[in-house]
Amino acid sequence: MTPDYVFFLRAAALHALPARLASSLAVLLLIPTLCHATALEQFRAFVAGTKSARGEFSQRMVKEEGGKLRTSAPSSGSFEFARPGKFIWAYQKPYEQLLQADGEKLYIYDKDLNQVTVRTLGSALGSSPAAILFGSNDLEKNFSLSEGGTRDGIEWLLAVPKTKDTQFEKIGIGLKEGVPVAMELRDSFGQASVLSFTKFEKNPVLPANHFRFVMPKGADVLQQ
To answer: Does 34 score more than 70 pLDDT?
Structure first.
């Protein structure tokens, strides 16, 4: 019996209970279901049930050189998104950089250079890692998804782009208790970008104009 089917059987039994008690029990019953779900089941439930989110991230670059793994100094920041195609990905350390999308355009702002690069969002997302978290729900159109096994209590999902016009060969998504906690982005040069997510908040209420980009005063603008 699949975890999803078990959950729906449990949910059906709650109809006869008072609304407040039923809601509390539903949350308690869902927790063990998610804990034992596969990565693909957790990810599909996350995509279907998460319209917006925010949290913090850290990122390291890992590359094999001379038979040894070399790891870069970490960068870190915060993120917010609302599907489809609206997000703010803000690097705060070691230097500030902002990637922001309003559903139509992607803006990349380098604070030190006071320079903004503007791209059409559709072509910028495509089969990119951003499409996994911030894009539409139709992810299997652009990615082949499969189970990636369990490591350190995290269920891993493997996403391979169906098109060859992306810099990444494969992407690992680590899930725990129904939310992404890590990503591994591997390119064709043997380099990997490893991200971890913390303080992940699902479905916060975000204002309608929250993702509207405000052009910094005096910034150089490059259209691509």
So the answer is: no
| CA proximity to 49, closest of 100, 106, 2, 7 | 7
- Cα–Cα distance measured from residue 143 to residue 126, given in angstroms and rounded to the nearest whole number: 10
Please give the pLDDT value at position 3: 35
**Mean pLDDT for all residues in the chain:** 80
The number of residues making up the chain comes to 224
CA gap 7, 12 in Å, rounded: 9
Shared-domain flag, residues 11 and 58: no
Predicted structure pTM score: 0.76
Q: How many CA atoms lie within 13 A of 102 on its CB side?
A: 14
Quote the number of domains for the chain: 2
216: which residues sit within 8 A by CB, 6+ positions away? 109, 111, 114, 116
CATH number, domain of 78, equals 2.50.20.10
Structural domain containing residue 170: 37-223
